[in-house]
Amino acid sequence: MPDRTPQIRVTAMPTDLNPYGGVFGGWLMSQMALGAGALASREGEGKAVVVSATDFAFPGAMAVGDELSVYCSIAGTGQTSVTILAEGIARERHGEATRKVASGTFKFVLLDDEGRPRAVKSEGLRTR
Question: Sorted alphabetically, which PANTHER family does this protein's record hold (predicted)?
């Protein structure tokens, strides 16, 4: 795995499982949205709300107790929007083995204090 810092890191718990005993894909998507939102708000220097989520894939499975790290990067910007790529990497509970379990793309719109879309400061956001 490349040397990079996750936006968030969380452990899958029994309440995060689907009826078949695997980690629920919706839980994975929500964790990725939280990580992507943290990056959008920090880099956008304010409120950012998700307006779309696309291109989801779940190439691996997680078990209860596995640790999920969510890595995000800015893929592009619009006049008021930021597009972020998110990747979920699971680490087994009692070891160091990792595997990609999810990926997706989120688009956020930056909002002002009145809740209206505001312009992206081009010098403030770094595409990575």
Answer: ACYL COENZYME A THIOESTER HYDROLASE, ACYL-COA THIOESTER HYDROLASE YCIA
Q: How far apart are CA 53 and CA 65, in angstroms?
A: 26
The second-level CATH assignment, the architecture, of 8-110 is Roll (3.10)
CA distances from 56 to 37, 42, 96, 120 (A): 16, 23, 25, 25
Write down the domain spans for the chain: 8-110
